[in-house]
Each structure stands twice: as C-alpha cells, then as structure tokens.
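Reminder to self: tokens first, then the designed residues, so the page reads top to bottom the way the pipeline ran.
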C-alpha cells in the first residue's frame, strides 16, 4: 500500500511540474490565443474610435448640411413660386408663407393650426409627413376657390401646401355648364319645332294634296267616261292606279311625319302599330313589352320616345342583319326605361362615334333633351342593346 501511494504522488508531482514548465514557455497556445484576442479587441477599438465614429459624425454633419441646403432651396422655391404656399410643421401649424401667400391674405394664418382653418384637412400631420404622403383638396379662402396640393416631406419634417387659384377655371366651368343647359334647351326646342313642322306638313299633305289627288281621280273618271264612254279602258285603269299609288305613298309619308294614332290613342298603341308595320315590311321577328305604361305621358316626351324607338328599328332593319329584335318599356314611377335589343352582327361603338352616325346621334340628343341618359352597348357579332332612361313626366 505504501509503495502504490508513493507512485501516485510521484506521477502527480511530475504533471504539476510539467504544467509549470509550460506556463513559462512563450510558445504556449494559451498565450497565442490571448495575444490574438487582445489584438482583435485593440483593432476593433481603434477602428471604432478613429474610423467608424468619425465617419458617423461626418455623415451626421453632412446630412444636417444637406437638410439645411434643402430647406434653403425649398425656401427659395417657395419665394419664387407664383402661387400661394404654406409650410407646416409636424403638428400642422403654419410656420412659413411665401410672398404670394401674403398678397392673398394668408399672412393672417401664421402660427395657426391648419385644421382649425380648414376643417376638411383633418389628419395626423406627423404620420402624414413621416409617410411622405400627398393629398389634394378643393377649398375656399376669402371667397376664392383654390385647388390645394398637400405634400409631406419626411426628410426635413415638414409639409407644404400649394394653393392654386381656380377662380377663372370655376367661371369657365360655370359658363360651360350654363352653355350645356342652354344647348339642351335649344335641342329640345328644336326637336319640338321639328315635330310641329312635321305635323304641319303631315296635315298639309293629308288635308290638301291628298284631297286634291282624290278629286283628280273623280274628275278623271267623270271626264274620261264622258269623252270615251268607257270607264274600264286600260289607259284609264293605269291612270287611276298611278293616282291610287300616289295617295298611298302620301298617306305613308303623312303617317311617318306625324302618326295620328300617337296623338289620338297614345304611346303604347302607336308603338304596337310601328312594330307590327316593321315586322310586316322587313320579315323580322320581334316583340314589344310594356310595364306600367298605361298612363299618358307628356306629349312631347311621348313623341321623343316614339322617335327613339322608330330610329332604333330603322337601324336594326338597315344595318344589323338581325333575325329578331325586342323592345321593352318600363315605368317604375320615377324613371321610364327603354331597352331596344337585337341579335344582329353588332358594331364597334368607338368606330361609329368617330364616324358620327346621325341616327344614334339623334337618339342621344332626343334623350338628353329631356334630361335622360342614353347608353349604347354593342360589339361585332354580339348584337346591340340601346338603353334610354327618362325622368317620368306624367301628363
């Protein structure tokens, strides 16, 4: 037992001696690791102190100089801007106004919050500026209309409001609106005058020329019989056939100018008659339906609706190559809806607008003359749908 303990002690003393020897050796890996670590720490410290920190300081200084330069440039542009300009801080307070704004009386607003002056501008200005957002408003100030562009500028923490006086534009728009109203009224007046003239010509043809043709036929019959003693000669029959044909044509023209059934019985019977006539003459299949159209409308509106349907049917017969058409008239108490559709070849709407087709133009003008809305939907090979909506005008 004593021998074993001595051996262990001896071995332990040798290891300790070896460790002490290694610690005194400069080639020890621990010393090398410590030196490398110290070197890295020293390198990072020097880099941070003499390179990175100075660079950050120079960057901050440069950034500050650029902001100042931008502010000066913006101030210069503000001074040169021909329109009023207001500059706001992040709270929405007015901090700068340009000379043009002073001329317009905006100098009274200095230091005030923009939302207290213009309640429509109700936003978190700080977030607005931070997000570099933009917004447009239409405002009145001192009785003058302005178009306002508000821009947030995050880099320098401000917002700028550009005011553009649109007084002249408003006058132009009002004049344009007035001229459009006058044009509609004139178009309506013109349509009414055209219908009056058609009625006059229709009555003239029916009451005078038609009667004269009938008298001519009677005189021809009486005189021809007295002169020849034969009331059934080929020559006489040919003459009477010509006169009868002229009378029929005259009646057709007179009816087209002013359908008596429209004036006497109303819109529904007149349109039934028109549709049946078109179907008989063209060979097309077609149908017309009415919902709540029993009450008579304003006579001028009835005439306009009749002419629109008539023009729509004429277009279907002439151009659509359709096999079938359908017409719907609906009165819901507030509006009168007219829908004219066919299964024809259709057309390019934009191309027809460029050509300026008179039929469609007349339909649109008749609709708009009574404050209606005219819509057209068509494309090649897909047929055509025409919709006209009128405010209901009860007689």
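Designed residues (395 positions):
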């Amino acid at each position: 037992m004593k021998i074993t303990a001595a051996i262990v002690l001896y071995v332990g003393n040798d290891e300790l001696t070896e460790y002490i020897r290694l610690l005194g050796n400069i080639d020890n890996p621990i010393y090398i690791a410590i030196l490398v670590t110290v070197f890295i720490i020293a390198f990072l410290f020097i880099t941070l102190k003499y390179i990175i920190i100075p660079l950050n300081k120079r960057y901050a200084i440069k950034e500050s100089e650029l902001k100042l330069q931008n502010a000066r440039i913006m101030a210069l542009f503000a001074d040169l801007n021909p329109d009023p300009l207001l500059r706001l801080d992040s709270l929405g307070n007015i901090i700068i106004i340009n000379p043009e704004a002073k001329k317009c009386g905006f100098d009274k607003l200095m230091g005030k919050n923009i939302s207290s002056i213009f309640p429509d501008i109700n936003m978190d200005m700080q977030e607005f500026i931070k997000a570099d957002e933009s917004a447009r408003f239409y405002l009145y100030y001192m009785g003058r209309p302005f178009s306002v562009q508000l821009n947030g500028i995050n880099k320098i923490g401000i917002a700028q409001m550009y005011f553009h006086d649109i007084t002249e534009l408003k006058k132009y728009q009002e004049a344009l609106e007035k001229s459009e109203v006058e044009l509609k009224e004139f178009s309506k007046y013109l349509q009414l005058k055209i219908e009056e003239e058609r009625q006059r010509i229709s009555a003239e043809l029916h009451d005078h020329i038609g009667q004269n043709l009938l008298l001519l036929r009677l005189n021809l019959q009486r005189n021809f019989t007295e002169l020849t003693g034969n009331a059934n000669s080929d020559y006489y029959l040919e003459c009477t056939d010509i006169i009868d044909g002229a009378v029929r044509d005259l009646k057709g023209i007179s009816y087209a100018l002013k359908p008596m059934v429209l004036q006497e019985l109303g819109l529904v019977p007149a349109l039934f008659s028109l549709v049946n006539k078109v179907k008989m003459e063209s060979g097309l299949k077609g149908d017309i339906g009415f919902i709540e159209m029993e009450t008579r409308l304003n006579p001028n509106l009835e005439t306009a609706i009749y002419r629109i349907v008539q023009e729509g049917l004429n277009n279907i017969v002439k151009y659509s190559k359709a096999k079938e058409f359908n017409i719907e008239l609906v009165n819901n108490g507030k509006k009168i809806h007219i829908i004219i559709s066919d299964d024809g070849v259709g057309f390019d709407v934009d191309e027809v607008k460029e050509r300026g087709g008179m039929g469609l133009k007349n339909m649109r003008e008749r609709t708009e003359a009574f404050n209606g809305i005219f819509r057209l939907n068509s494309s090649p090979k897909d047929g055509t749908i025409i919709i006209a909506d009128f405010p209901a005008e009860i007689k």
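The chain has four domains: 2-60, 81-165, 170-258, 265-395.
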